[in-house]
Amino acid sequence: IVAQHMRMIIDLVPADAAKLIYDQLMSLTTTAADKKGAGLIVALIVSVFGASRASGGMMSALNVIYEQEDRRGILRSAGVSAVLAIGAILVGIAGVLAASVLGFVQDLISGIGPIAAAVVRSVTWAIAGLLASATIGATYRFAPYRADARWQWLSVGAVLATILWLLATLGFGFYASHFAGYDATYGSLSAIVVLIMWLYISAYAVLIGGLVNAEAERQTAIDTTTGRPHPMGDRGAAVADMSAALQGAPHR
Fold first, then answer.
1. Other C-beta atoms within 10 Å of 188: how many?
2. Which residues pair with 225 in a beta bridge?
């Protein structure tokens, strides 16, 4: 049942990483009931801690992209990274549940024909894309230390990052399966290496989307921050406080 309902996710990520995720899910679902609760709590704590560290790195990188100096204290930075991490985990859980529900629906209507199956698959991918774009957009808005950007100035980069992530995931999965030879090089550690490489590639996709958003803000004189419009230089965001168009030359 786990393999059937997780088929979309398992088919998407690189094979070695998918095997690692699948093995962990099977281990969790087949664990004795008296051990499952404690194991789940430990796994969640480790996941939140690891995701918080990753969120902290993403915050630092986005501050560089948006040309911001992060003046948040240690506790506030840790709190923001933890909130972003927990939010991403909750969105991931929602995506898994959506994939499971839609997979179950597809099984129920499989006798109707290929058109119905294609519709269900399209809805599944649309939901996954919307969840990914919303999560990435929230990261762009809350991770950098700056005045919040309006959502319309975040959406282009979020959609672009989602598309790049999907293409990069499919491309890296094909490369890792056919050319990389991670099994011969790393042996039993190959699944972990592939998973880490995939996470790095995913992070670069998100950063490219953030770079596009930052450049879009830099190329307009319109106030891109939330609230009432402020004059340039008083907007609380470096890329919104400078306009390459008004300066008459590209920003360097």
1. 7
2. 149
Q: Where are the domains of the chain?
A: 2-247
CB atoms within 10 A of CB 44: 12
Tens of pLDDT, residue by residue over 58-90, are: 999 999 999 999 999 889 999 999 898 888 877
Q: Is the pLDDT assigned to residue 162 strictly greater than 50?
A: yes
What are the tokens at 198? 């995939």
Tokens 């915050």 map to which residue?
59
**The token pair that represents 2 in the structure block:** 């786990």
Q: What is the DSSP letter of 241?
A: S
What are the structure tokens assigned to 131, written together? 């969840």
Instruction: Return the half-sphere exposure (C-beta side, CA atoms, 13 A cut-off) of residue 14.
Output: 29
CA-atom Rg of the chain in angstroms: 21
**94-104 per-position pLDDT tens digit:** 766 666 666 66
Model pTM score? 0.77
Lookup: tokens for 81: 């990274």
Q: How far is CA 32 from CA 36, 43, 225, in A?
A: 6, 15, 52
C-alpha–C-alpha distance, residues 59 and 232, integer Å: 24
Helices (H) and strands (E) in the chain, counts: 10, 0
Distance CA 206, CA 62 (A): 9
Name the pLDDT band for 51 (thresholds 50, 70, 90).
confident
Exposed (0-12), middle (13-18) or buried (19+): which is 2, by Cβ within 10 Å?
A: middle
Query: Would you put residue 181 in left (φ > 0), alpha (ψ -120 to 50) or beta?
Result: left
Q: Cα–Cα distance between 9 and 96 in angstroms, integer?
A: 8
